Amino acid sequence: MEKPSAPPPIICLNDRVLLHYAVLNDSVGFTAGHGLLFVGRKEIGRVPCLAICQDKESQLVTLYFCDNDWSPMGIGTSASVEATKTTAERIYPGSSASWVEAHFTEEETKRFLDELWAAQRCSFCGRLPDQTLFAPFEGNGNARICDKCIRQFSSQLGNSKG
Ligand SMILES: [Zn+2]
Fold first, then answer.
1. Which has more confidence, 45 or 144?
2. pLDDT in tens, 115-139
């Protein structure tokens, strides 16, 4: 079976940072019928990886049920890391021994996002798509312009008229 890779500093864009992660080995059990989480309308099954992230805009933490590439297949929210681990232990008995504390810095998270969005950055102001309303408009070569720049330039053009 394919071995899971090292986890990224965040799983989704609404995370502040990855706090803890677990790669579940064969000794970890699985309780069906937990009824807690659904993908579509189906209860989530056994996954190889779990991740706990600090939410960007609240004190809540998110539990991600991930595949080998740390792509989320299901999520749950909780008030604390401990509560999240308790929930995980109920679904995956033995998982509590698998948790590893992640030590990502803000800088590493920023760099990860920069690389993720490198091809999306506005050529004029450097804004990333999560700081604008729309994806940037593509020009020739690698030129891109975001909606905020378009609005700013267009109002400057409007002011200079007459
Ligand atoms: Zn811009």
1. 144
2. 887 778 899 998 887 788 888 888 8
- Domain residues for the domain of 20 are 15-108
- Give the pairing type, strands 15-23 and 49-55: antiparallel
pTM of structure = 0.74
Q: What is the pLDDT of residues 92-103, one digit of tens each?
A: 999 999 999 999
Distance 14 CA to ligand 1 centre (A): 22
Q: Where are the extended beta strands (E) located within 56-161?
A: 61-66, 72-78, 99-101, 137-138, 144-145
- Domains identified in the chain, total number: 2
Compute, in angstroms, the gap from residue 105 CA to the centroid of ligand 1. 27
Q: How far is the CA of 121 from the centre of ligand 1 (A)?
A: 8
Does residue 114 fall inside a structural domain? no
How far, in Å, from the CA of 114 to the mean position of ligand 1? 15
7 found inside a domain = no
Residue 20 included in any domain: yes
> How many A from CA of 110 to the centre of ligand 1?
19
Does the residue 154 lie in any domain? Answer: yes
Q: How far is the CA of 126 from the centre of ligand 1 (A)?
A: 6
How many Å lie between the centroid of ligand 1 and the Cα of residue 115?
18
Q: How far is CA 38 from CA 17, 43, 145, in A?
A: 24, 4, 39
